[in-house]
Amino acid sequence: MAKKLVEIAHKEGAKYICHGCTGKGNDQVRFEVAIASFDPSIEIIAPWRIWDIKSREDAIDYATAHNVEVPVTKAKIYSVDKNIWHTSHEGGDLEDPANEHKSEMYDMITPAEKAKDEPTYVEISFEKGIPVKVNGETVSPVEIVTMLNKIGGENGVGVVDILENRLVGMKSRGIYETPAGTILYKAHKELERLTLDKETYHYKQLVSQKYAELVYNGLWFTTLKESLDAFVDTTQEHVTGNVKLKLYKGNVTNAGVTSPYALYDMNISSFGASDLYSHKDAGGFIRLFGLPYRIKALKNSNK
Q1: What is the pLDDT of residues 216-254, one digit of tens each?
Q2: Measuring CA to CA, how many Å separate 114 from each of 89, 103, 181, 247, 251?
Q3: For the domain 1-76, what is the CATH superfamily, name and number?
Q4: Which pathway does it operate in (predicted)?
Q5: Cα(200)–Cα(192) distance, rounded to whole angstroms?
Q6: Which of 45, 152, 153, 194 could form a disulfide with 157 if both were Cys (CB 3.0 to 4.6 A apart)?
Q7: SS3 of 209, please?
Q8: CB neighbours of residue 113 within 10 Å
C-alpha cells in the first residue's frame, strides 16, 4: 500500500501523503518507514498526531460534526480492519484483558459452539511451498483464500485472542479472524515436517520469528528481509505434496500428508528390521553423544 501511495504521489506531483493512523499503532510506522524507503522527500500528514483528537470518541464526534459517515458508534466502538486475509477487532471492552471477548463481534467465523456438528475434510496441494490446489481443483491464490475462508469460517476455525507487543512500546489486545490463514499455515507446516531435514526445519523456525518481527515492524523493504526471502525460497524447493486436514469446531488436525520428496521412510522408521539401520548401532551413538556429560560427571566425582 505504501509503495502504491508513493507511485500515485509521483504521478500526481504530490509532496504530502496523509494517513488516518492513530499515534499509538504500528500501522503509522509501517506506512511512513515504507514511504521513506522509496521517497524520503515526501512529508506525512497524520491528523491524529496533529489535531486535538485524543480518542476514538473524539474521532466519532468530529466525523458527526462534519457529516462524515463512519461504521462505528460509541456503543460499538471496536476498531475493525478487514481485508481478504483477516478481520481484526480492537478497542472497547477488549482493552481490559480480564474481559472475555464476545463472539458476537465475529465477521468471518461461526463461533465454535455453533459450528457444524460433523467434521469437514479439506486437501491442499503445494508446489515448492506455494498452495496451488484445494480438493484437487487448481485455483488462483485469491480463490484459495476465499474458498478456505468460507470452509474454515463454517467450522469455527481461525480465531485468535492475543496480547501483542507494539513497536511503540505498549501492549495491545486484539481479536483476529483468519480462517484461511490458519488452515494454510497448518497445512504448510505439516508438509515441511515431512520434507525438510531437522537442521533446516529448526533453523527456519528461528528465521520465521525474525521475519515476523521485520514485517510487524514495517521493515519490508530492507536488505535483511530480502536476504531472508532468499533463504526461505531455498528451503521450499522440495516442499511439494498434498496435505489433508480435518476441521471440527475450531480445531484443525492433520489427516494425512504425502510428498514425492518425503524424508520419512516407513521401512527405516518402523520398529521392524531394516537394512539401513541396526539397533546395535544405537549403543555406540549414545556413548559418543553423551560423552561430554560422562566426562563432566567423572570430573565432578574427583573433586
Answers
A1: 999 999 999 999 999 999 999 999 999 999 999 999 999
A2: 20, 10, 21, 14, 13
A3: HUPs (3.40.50.620)
A4: Amino-acid biosynthesis; L-arginine biosynthesis; L-arginine from L-ornithine and carbamoyl phosphate: step 2/3
A5: 10
A6: 152
A7: helix
A8: 9
